[in-house]
């Protein structure tokens, strides 16, 4: 790797290795020849994937494990007093946050593409990777989810490196991309930023750090910065979709670049909102001078990201679909797509993700959920936070007279079994453990503890 201080390192220990971003970086380091191991609070599907790849993963914290490591990397969810971090510092072992590691990894590639925005980063990043892989034959990717083909890490060459650029705690400002792709401005992580304007300024700083900029043409940032290309539905966008057609939640469109029709694009991912993600990827291909037909082929190859409108199976003859949506606008998009494919009744199971997000966006959550006929609100996934009644799932449910509040998998299991019928759709929403809870219902029926 180019970064000097990695050249004398061999053993890397990752604290919080089961995180989707950290696990991808661990696989990346292993592919580069480093000896990688790490710990996490729980055994998950992700930690199992790492162990299957030959990366030892330990459960819980043990300070002695870091002794002998050449560097320790940790996720921002890890508290400062974590025993393994504390021992690393006592031993004089260099300690780095995950975002620092990502920046170092990216520095080893010719062209770094950072994909930012409040919604759609994972899908757009994966789409960009597929497009550049087809166009150039030399593209690697770090994806904040599990792509059906690439997983969360893909090593395909050194010319391009595509990665999510996450705005959480301004981590994306550590990345110095050659090309910044900006999808949208939203209201998220306001517990850190304090205001929407502060978040906008951080997004602007991220875009300004790159040599090239691609921005959604209808976002306010398209006016505040000078993008090289814009994308969107508007006639003013440089890269846009026309002749849009949808069949049961999947879309095709004609790609129009600077007023000229180029080619037809057919998507295999559900949802009209994915047209914008596809346009962002097509704009990346245009920026680097690749034919539109190559971009269209890359987009055709992209199938899905796990937990992005993922089919989990059937229950009572009803389709069960999981989506990572945990922000009001994402919920609206997922519900809209579900209605397009649902022939019977739509049931929505929503698990709020963190108390602070629910409290900050409370009115927006109430607005987007209040029109649903068959709504279940599942107990909050707290992540790194302590209980806050004002932002709890129970409080949210109390403001939604149409909802049923449940706290256990057993309650949810019983409700779904007595309610679902053939033709219905059960849409499971949230970024927490509700995904695994519903998978248990489908796999271990009928009795769940």
How would you describe this structure to a colleague?
There is one protein chain. This protein folds into 3 domains: 10-98, 3-Layer(aba) Sandwich (Rossmann fold), CATH 3.40.50; 109-301, UDP-N-acetylmuramoyl-L-alanine:D-glutamate ligase, CATH 3.40.1190; 310-443, Mur ligase, C-terminal domain (Protein-Tyrosine Phosphatase, Chain A, Alpha-Beta Complex), CATH 3.90.190. Strand 7 and strand 8 form a beta hairpin. The protein is α/β, with parallel strands linked by helices and 449 residues long. Helix 1 packs across helix 4 (98-106), helix 5 (121-136) runs parallel beside helix 9 and helix 9 packs across helix 10 (292-301). It is 34% helix and 26% strand. The strands form 3 sheets. Strands 8-7-9-6-10-11-12-13-14-15 form a 10-stranded mixed sheet, with helices on both faces. Residues 1-5 have low confidence and may be disordered.
SSE layout and pairings?
Layout: E1 11-15, H1 20-31, E2 35-40, H2 45-52, E3 57-59, E4 71-74, H3 83-90, E5 95-97, H4 98-106, E6 111-116, H5 121-136, E7 139-147, E8 151-154, E9 160-164, E10 179-182, H6 190-193, H7 196-208, E11 212-216, H8 221-224, E12 229-232, E13 239-247, E14 250-257, E15 260-270, H9 273-287, H10 292-301, E16 310-315, E17 318-323, H11 328-341, E18 346-350, H12 355-360, H13 362-369, E19 374-378, H14 393-398, E20 403-406, H15 409-419, E21 425-429, H16 434-443
Helix pairs in contact: 1-4, 5-9, 5-10, 9-10, 11-13
């Amino acid at each position: 790797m180019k970064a000097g201080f990695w050249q004398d390192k061999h053993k890397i220990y990752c604290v919080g290795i089961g995180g989707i971003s950290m696990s991808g970086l661990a696989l990346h380091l292993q592919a580069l020849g480093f000896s990688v191991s790490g710990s996490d609070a729980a055994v998950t599907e992700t930690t199992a994937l790492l162990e299957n790849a030959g990366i030892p993963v330990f459960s819980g914290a043990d300070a002695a494990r870091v002794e002998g490591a050449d560097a320790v990397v940790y996720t921002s969810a890890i508290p400062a007093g974590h025993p393994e971090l504390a021992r690393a510092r006592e031993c004089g072992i260099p300690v780095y946050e995950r975002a620092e590691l990502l920046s170092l990894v990216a520095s080893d590639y010719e062209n770094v593409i950072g994909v930012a925005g409040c919604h759609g980063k994972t899908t757009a990043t994966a789409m960009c990777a597929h497009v550049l892989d087809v166009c150039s034959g030399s593209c690697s990717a770090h994806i904040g989810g599990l792509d059906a083909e690439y997983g969360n890490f893909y090593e395909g060459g050194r010319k391009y490196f595509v990665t999510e650029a996450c705005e959480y705690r301004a981590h994306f400002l550590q990345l110095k991309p050659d090309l910044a792709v900006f999808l949208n401005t939203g209201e998220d992580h306001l517990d850190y930023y304090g205001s929407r304007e502060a978040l906008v300024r951080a997004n602007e700083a991220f875009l300004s750090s790159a040599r090239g900029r691609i921005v959604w043409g209808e976002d306010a940032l398209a006016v505040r910065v000078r993008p090289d290309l814009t994308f969107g539905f508007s006639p003013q966008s440089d890269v846009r979709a026309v002749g849009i057609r949808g069949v049961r939640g999947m879309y095709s469109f004609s790609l129009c670049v600077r007023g000229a029709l180029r080619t037809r694009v057919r998507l295999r991912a559900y949802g009209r909102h994915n047209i914008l993600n596809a346009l962002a990827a097509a704009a990346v291909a245009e920026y680097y001078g690749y034919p539109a037909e190559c971009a269209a082929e890359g987009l055709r190859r992209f199938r899905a990201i796990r937990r992005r409108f993922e089919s989990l199976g059937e229950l009572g003859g009803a389709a069960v679909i999981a989506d990572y949506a945990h922000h009001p606008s994402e919920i609206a998009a997922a519900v809209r797509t579900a209605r397009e494919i649902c022939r019977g009744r739509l049931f929505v199971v929503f698990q709020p993700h963190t108390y602070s997000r629910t409290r900050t966006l409370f009115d927006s959550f109430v607005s987007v959920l209040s029109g649903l006929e068959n709504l279940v609100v599942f107990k909050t996934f707290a992540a790194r936070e302590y209980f806050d009644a004002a932002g709890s799932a129970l409080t949210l449910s109390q403001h939604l007279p149409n909802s049923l509040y449940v706290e256990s998998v057993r309650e949810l299991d019983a409700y779904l079994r007595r309610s679902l019928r053939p033709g219905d759709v059960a849409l499971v929403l949230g970024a927490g453990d509700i995904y695994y809870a519903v998978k248990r219902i489908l796999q271990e029926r009928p009795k769940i503890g």
